[in-house]
């Protein structure tokens, strides 16, 4: 009996050891590295020549570690956790303005009509330089947080408007942002619905808009997901469910950890599985937007129009840490019904690398149409006006299109919002403006030429190839000028959007889209032709 017990015990120990060998190895390596880091952290704090801030030092270490992974795996403090909850809920306490921060001021980029910011007299383009007794330029943290506060509390703002100083007293309020900020009936039969973000009310707002439009006579639908950054995965499934029958696979996830592998199918009876649908996307349509557009494309439920989407096929999950903090960690990739993952970037050594088209894999839609992974959702019909070149992205990053638009309004009298549209003369003024402010577009080729020049200098070849490098730079500058000309139409569109938003809120921009927008015109044209619509989807 003793020998039998010993044999069983040996077997259990051996089995346990075998099953947990990898865990033991991982645990030992983790414990070892934590011990090394703890000792280093202690020695630096105790012995460094200057005084250090332990919290800042640790935050730097955490951020550097996570930066080596992907941009979506992040550490959140308590305030950032609250901000995430607010984004998903669609309501918050604040002033009702979209802002951007500069070292000197907080810039009002957009206003919600009727919000506290709007009612107080704030205008798009205003630069807030002081909040209460605190000057923005002297505030080391996110000054935008100072605008938040309890409902009905007041805050005094000092701002610059066209170089004129103004003081405004603003009363904060509860802001409810609509997931569907705009819907209307076009040409008597085309329902147009803008979905700006996948908050908790996204699907219910789309259903409400759809039913209202159908009552008014809509027999075909345009769902506009352009510039929609995503949101809740559950709401992406629910929005797809509006047009797709119950029990249909919308997306599934794969992970290195089996418990994170999930499938997501439609759970409710669809609102309308027959009405023709066109979905609009662009490079800023990401995540949940790509789940909706990807599933509708894979299931041949509607036509996708615009430009290739952003390409975010990664899923994050929050993990609670100590002291009310969290880590949002990428745990899996999601796939559309055909089996493709639309993730467009790989992350190596902290750098993002766009996948090459040669790496794409072909998949088939329900009707046998070819679709591809690795590069976002590619539209069935591409509209060039929605493509943004690197030049346009650089101009937007520097806020130069926005700043010029505000400057143009300030120095132009009697602008007519009813028929304003950017013409060639205004584009030329924009070119003069960016020269005046010193904007220089540095392309990847510019960087390589600079690198070549430095290497040639270090190897003492520069004097012999200097003229060749100058000729190469001259040719590149000429090509960049051609690129600017090529981007004239999208520049006109972006300047027009900014001017109209300043003069008439987002409503004026949506009116411009529906009356002049090439993408919506293309969508209506496709929906109006039953044969063409069915042919694109592989039914004929």
Plain-language structure description:
The chain is α+β, with helices and mostly antiparallel strands and 540 residues long. It folds into three domains: 92-176, PDZ domain (Pdz3 Domain); 182-382, 2-enoyl-CoA Hydratase, Chain A, domain 1, CATH 3.90.226.10; 390-518, no CATH class. Helix content is 43%, strand content 21%. The chain contains 16 helices and 23 strands. It has helices spanning 2-19, 21-47, 54-67, 78-89, 116-120, 202-215, 233-241, 288-298, 390-397, 400-411, 424-436, 444-458, 462-486, 488-516, 518-528, 530-536, and strands at 74-76, 91-94, 97-101, 106-111, 127-131, 134-135, 154-161, 164-171, 173-176, 182-186, 190-194, 220-224, 249-254, 262-265, 277-281, 303-306, 314-320, 326-335, 345-348, 351-354, 362-364, 370-372, 381-382. Strands 3, 4, 5, 6, 7 and 8 form a six-stranded antiparallel beta sheet that branches. A hairpin with a 7-residue loop joins β13 and β14 (262-265). It starts with a helix and ends with a helix. Mean pLDDT is 90; it is low at 1-23.
